[in-house]
Amino acid sequence: MEPRLVLAPGRLLKLSYLKNDTRAEYRAALTEMLAGMQPSPQCLQLPIFTSFFNVSQCVTRLLPFKVNTSALQVLWPLMASPSQTSKEALASLKRGEYQPPTANDLRSPCPVVNAFANHGLIPRDGRNVRAEELDTAMKELGLSITIRKTLVWGAYFERYDNRPSGLKDFITSPLAYLHWHFGIRNINQKDSDETACLDLDQLSRHGAIEHDVSMTRRDFAQGGDNHSKQEDLVDQLLQSSSDGSYITTSDFARLRRKRLEQQKKDNPDLCFPSVLHLVTAGQIAAIQRVFGHGDKESRIPVSYAEALFREERLPVKEGWRKSQGWLAGAIGVVVQLVRVRVAIGRVKS
């Protein structure tokens, strides 16, 4: 007979000698406990291995620390404060280490920006993101200083619900006269150090940076959720590859045209002026230059796209490395933008 753990009242686990139980019963018992339910009698017996379960990951794996099987009682410290444990676990993650967001984290409609947060390149909770942090994160992709500064500059405009008017408003914020509707930050939004910041969910403000006909999100007019990833659209993107291995410029062009035609049918309030045709082509070009293979075609491996658009993770383990040289610079992106626009124009409706 081998020693086993049996759930006791409170947060204690007692030793007993019972017959073999399965790993599935471990998962069932711990899942029920986490849900605040009384475990069923069939799940009371929990076998001791040389490792013990981390409550936050009980259904997936064991932690590599040993349990003293000679003790009669074992305190379960993780049950006392799961939220605190989660915070401590996140705090222990290294910068660049991937961790999916928790239910309380804020995210944007942009998979790349979300990947920054998931890797800890900007605050993982998506709150109080400073301009310098966003700039540093984009530098990790290999984007040139021209592109980085332009994007960051535009992202930190303040949001005005009404067009400013009068001399005082002009003196206070002259740019607001031109960009009043395109800002995403709240007026005078700052962190505890009085530094300008934004929250990632503010990027969802419709008509500013966010726009209709996303490759992986629904339009705002389709229920108001323009920030959540839609699995069917991610599938559509990945399946756009003509050879199943790479997504080429032509593949992206066909997808862009398909998405536009699809949204014309699904969204009667579609807003997609000619300038957005240019903007969305630029987004594709930038993604190709950053995550492409560096050849003329700037093909993106489907495995890279899977990581980026489905998991919102930088595809480092798939082989991607930071873009080098002029390809991710302003000239390289503009050249690719022209190729994308030409390719889209060649797609038959």
3D architecture notes:
This protein is α+β, with helices and mostly antiparallel strands. It has helices spanning 23-34, 82-91, 111-118, 131-139, 145-155, 167-172, 176-179, 231-238, 249-266, 274-291, 302-311, 330-346; strands spanning 3-7, 12-17, 45-47, 52-53, 62-63, 73-75, 129-130, 197-198, 246-247, 300-301. It has a 4-stranded antiparallel beta sheet. A hairpin with a 4-residue loop joins strand 1 and strand 2 (12-17). It is globular, with a radius of gyration of 25 Å.
Provide the low-confidence segments as ranges. Answer: 1-23, 36-85
Strand content: 5-15%
Summed up, the helix count is 12
Estimated radius of gyration:
25 Å
By secondary-structure content and strand pairing, the structural class works out as alpha+beta
Anisotropy-based shape: globular
The profile of the biggest β sheet is: 4 strands, antiparallel
Could you tell me how far the N terminus lies from the C terminus, measured between alpha carbons in angstroms? 71 Å
Q: Summarize model confidence as the mean pLDDT.
A: 77
Strand order of the largest sheet: 3-1-2-6
Helix content: 25-40%
Total beta strands: 10
**SSE ordering:** EEHEEEEHHEHHHHEHEHHEHH
